[in-house]
Write a structure and sequence with these properties.
The longest helix is centred in the first third of the chain and has 9 residues, at 31-39. β43 (470-475) and β44 (480-486) form a beta hairpin. The chain has two helices and 44 strands. The chain is mainly β and 490 residues long. It folds into two domains: 3-366, Pectate Lyase C-like; 397-486, Jelly Rolls, CATH 2.60.120. The strands form five sheets. The chain has a 22-stranded parallel beta sheet that branches. An eleven-stranded parallel beta sheet has the order 5-8-11-13-15-17-19-22-25-28-31. The termini are far apart. 3% of the residues lie in helices and 44% in strands.
Length: 490
């Protein structure tokens, strides 16, 4: 229902649930009275709910063109025993507390605003939105038995959710995007449930979404993840916030392809915070292609200017963790942002079948060095490191007919066949701009780097006859050029 249409509602199209006998006293079953008020608006209109708690023992259905509006919605609740505002509460077991119809008529969309919808843990779903352009705004959705809000539209949905808080206690899924596309969701807070949010449809815009465990189940080990994506279409997450999680070996965001390929999922300006994490094996983003591999499903994800902030004691195990099996294919791109207190940036090196990782645009790593990463880290702008830069020693290299092949930036070198002395003429494996430190593997054997014999450009031959002697080189794309040498031997 558009704002223009809503502003044109005539007095004859406005009704009050109390005019149909609803009490709002927190105990009387008001379901029949409320549904009668809704059904009386055959041409659409506005149903008003004066302040109170309206208990219903059967679910309500809201057709297209009808708006439900409460009074003075508030969020003062402690363990859901006290509310301020207008509450519709499930009184007995039911499938869905409130369902918006599928817009069979041309009266427009259903709108729900300024209300608290309380599933009371007896409604399997609190709110199911099934109509095109249906709108939920300035509302709270709480205590669903299995789901808080379910968006379920075939085809283009154009639904709107704005200024809404969804709160579960310790069960189910807070928000389930089951089907539909092209909807806009703004300023939504989701707290709790096994998953805060499950997205199984694409083409949506999420702006200022805040996902965190429920204040009622802090520390609950049942939390699987904050955001679980298993969708076929593009989804955009802008300025979203993913808060801490308390379950070991779990993730803040999980992207998978169990039933279809997960196409472009784009995160811009999002923050991943785990400040009070009490477990040591939490990852920020988990990309999982292990289930859909048999059907050649794939995952693509982009992270632009996203920040990861872990706990100084229990760091992120990985900012990005991925699993790909068989033909499962993962691509993920990271541009800019910060990673704080992560043991490693990613869990596996990219390869032709399981993914590609690109880091570019001013990536900053604060407080802890990135370790444990198998792949190259390519930075397209300045790299600022507040901690240490550590060149771990690569494998020992043995000269073979005057040559070695480097695989790291720090190696020890030994002579061929443990000869007393050997010449090194050629170094392979370099990348343009690569720095390399070499030292002798054994003080009993001498390695001589030969100037200008092949691809070494030195300030004369360099003799490494002690395990403490070093030479530092830089690769120009063709030749290794000497930067410095040290004669540290006794």
């Amino acid at each position: 229902m558009s704002n223009a249409r809503e502003n044109q509602i005539k007095l004859s199209q406005v009704t009050d649930v109390k005019a149909f006998g609803a009490t709002g006293d927190g105990s009387t079953n008001d379901a029949a009275a409320i549904q009668a008020a809704i059904d009386s608006l055959t041409d659409g209109g506005l149903v008003l709910f004066p302040y109170g708690v309206y208990v219903v023992n059967t679910g309500l259905t809201v057709p297209g063109g009808v708006t439900l509006r409460g009074e003075a919605r508030g969020r003062k609740y402690s363990a859901f025993t006290s509310f301020t505002g207008t509450v519709i509460r499930a009184g007995t077991s039911m499938a869905t507390l409130v369902t918006t119809d599928e817009n069979a008529s041309d009266l427009g969309c259903a709108v729900i605003e300024d209300l608290i919808l309380d599933g009371n843990n007896v409604a399997t779903t609190v709110l199911k939105m099934q109509g095109v352009k249906d709108t939920l705004r300035n509302a709270d959705v709480v205590r669903g038995g299995s789901y808080g809000v379910v968006n379920n539209v075939t085809g283009v949905a154009h639904q709107t959710i704005e200024n809404v808080q969804i709160t579960m206690d310790s069960r189910g899924v807070g928000w389930h995007i089951a089907s539909g596309s092209d909807s806009n969701f703004t300023n939504v807070i989701v707290n709790g449930g096994y998953r805060d949010m499950l997205v199984e449809a694409g083409g949506h815009q999420f702006d200022r979404i805040h996902l965190a465990p429920s204040p009622l189940d802090a520390g609950d080990a049942s939390h699987v993840c904050l955001l679980d994506i298993n969708s076929t279409g593009d989804n955009y997450f802008v300025n979203c916030h993913f808060d801490q999680i308390h379950t070991a070996n779990q993730y803040q965001v999980k992207i998978r392809c169990d039933t279809s390929s997960a196409l472009e999922n784009i995160f811009v300006g999002c923050s991943f915070d785990n400040p009070d994490c009490d477990v040591a094996t939490v990852s920020g983003v988990f990309l999982d292609a292990s289930t859909g591999y048999a059907s050649n499903y794939w995952i693509t994800a982009h992270f632009h200017a996203c920040n990861f902030s872990g706990n100084g004691t229990n760091k992120y195990e990985y900012a990005f963790e991925k699993v790909a099996t068989g033909n499962g294919y993962i691509q993920y791109y990271v541009m800019g942002g910060q990673v704080n207190n992560a043991t490693a940036l990613w869990s596996h090196a990219p390869n032709a079948y399981s993914g590609v990782a690109h880091i570019s645009g001013g990536h900053t790593v604060v407080a802890d060095p990135i370790t444990g990463s198998d792949g190259d880290l390519s930075v397209g702008a300045d790299l600022t490191v507040a901690g240490k830069v550590v060149l771990t020693t690569g494998s020992e290299l043995t000269i073979a007919t005057g040559a070695i092949t480097v695989t790291a930036s720090h190696h020890t070198v030994d002579t061929e066949g443990d000869a007393a002395s050997d010449d090194l003429d050629t170094i392979s494996g370099g990348t343009d701009g690569m720095m390399l430190v070499l030292r002798a593997a054994d003080s009993a054997r001498t390695v001589v780097l030969k100037d200008a014999v092949d691809n070494l450009q030195l300030a004369g031959d360099c003799t490494l006859d002690n395990a403490q002697d070093t030479i530092t080189l830089m690769y120009s794309g063709t030749n290794w050029r000497e930067i410095s040498r040290s004669d540290n031997g006794a």
